[in-house]
Hints:
The protein has helices at residues 8-29, 38-43, 50-59, 64-77, 84-106, 113-118, 121-154, 158-207, 210-219, 238-253, 257-263, 269-300, 318-326, 333-368, 373-397, 404-428, 434-453, 489-492, 498-516, 522-525, 538-568. With 569 residues, the protein is an all-alpha fold. Helix 10 crosses helix 19 (498-516).
Amino acid sequence: MVQPVFGAWDYTIMAATMVLSVAIGVYFRFSGGKQKTNEEYLLADRNMSILPVAVSLMASFMSAISLLGVSAENYYYGMIFIVINFSYGIATPICSHLYLPVFFGLQKTSTYEYLELRFGPRIRMLASLTYTLQMILYNGIVLYAPAIVLEAVTGLDRVVSILVVGLACTFYSTLGGMKAVLFTDLLQSLLMFAAVFSIVIFASIQLGGLGNIFAIAKERARLDFSNTSVNPTERHTWWSLIVGGLFTYLSLYAVNHTQIQRLLTVSTLSRSQQCLWWSWPVLSVLSVVTSTSGLAIYAAYKDCDPVASGKITAIDQLMPFYVVDTMRSVPGLAGLFVAGIFSASLSTVSAACNALAAVTLTDYVSRWCKIKETYISWLTKLAACGYGLLFLALAFLAEYLGGVLQAALTIFGAVGGPLLGVFTLGMFTTFATELGVSVGLLSGMAFTLWMSFGGPRPPTVKLPVSVDGCAFNVTVPPPVTVDPNEYFYLYRISYMWTSPIGFAWVVVVGCIISLLYRQQQPWQRAGRPHPDPALFTPPLAHILRTRLREKESAQCELLNKEDIRNRQS
């Protein structure tokens, strides 16, 4: 294995990234309103500009795991994964015109306050706790996974990596609030782009241009986009990537509290919608460049695969291995790459600290305790700091929990579809009840987690690799032939279908239970004869308002007729 050497320029770039991130937090702590109110701390006084919010929407969930994973995905399974970007384009108008207007109109600090207004307090608490659990698990992994990978290929101590990133992130997000999180996301996104662009540019120079990279990829079957099968057991097809990607994107950008909180930091609905529209090309460009970097790395190692030759032990180490193996001759490039990977973790963890602080104060503490206004902002900062330290602890514990890394990521994906189903039932129907959506959510998550965790599962089949060009003799064992029909059908379904299946389950079960077991709706319990149109998606809200006006008009006409009859009599 290549022994990496970090030079002075590399350490300088790494240190500058951390110092700048912390400096942004300090600046916003002592400027403007100095984060004295929860409105400023959690929602940046709702006066942010479009660019930082749009970029932050991308950075909030584009973690280091994504950067390392997408490049490895294209290396070992081909570039068909890039098709998922079409689903983002389909989902963006759905998010911006059908879901976002409801949240923006209500202007609530916690997304889950909507569920209490629409259904009742139990489903609000259930959904909020589900979100809190998945974010805690995911962000512990976000800190741990890049540290262990980078330790293996750059020599950076794992403990130091976790402590530096975790403490710096906790410090600036606690001090500077949402404004610090948004502007550090902007800085860190630039570093993420710089990291992946540097790989593509360097590989293009090394291999004689992008044309040669794509020619090699095509020759070795990495550019096969022909799979249009509707079979859900096939890992990646046009259908699984577009439909699965659509529901995954909707679960993150239409109803996830971390993203909705960012979309409420601007002054008007139209500006919030622009943030969503601009985040789509930013996300897609990063996705395309990261995918291309995977092909570039494959072109460099086409005749001596690093995993098969034993140079690295996991496919997620491919990108950092390439950097230290081939790019370390250029001072600062390795440092730029590591800064980009750490920045991806920083942006995700800081977003979670701020979002979970908002949920904790709004859904838990303020609900059960009466707190003086002067204490709320301090308690919110304490909660943000507490979550940062909790992520740190989980990152260290993850070392001893083995398979929990993949388990946590699976949980994160499996609960998104069912939660999207709950909000969809609330916004798109007037008959769905709290009992119906609660049963739907619990049974839907149980089903998707069973699908995701159940076993034994058939192994995923990678595209062939070569070791013929290695400087030493390497024997690659012949591929094991596996009959997929020997495995239980549900365990063979592609992970891309988990979110749509969870969504469909909640919608169907929620509708059936709601229609079979009628409950009083919140507006009926409050003595109102009709629902509040503000709780529903704009097309349905328009129908409800029209009916309400017609009803009021009919009542006025009836009163006028009675008044005329009374006068005549």
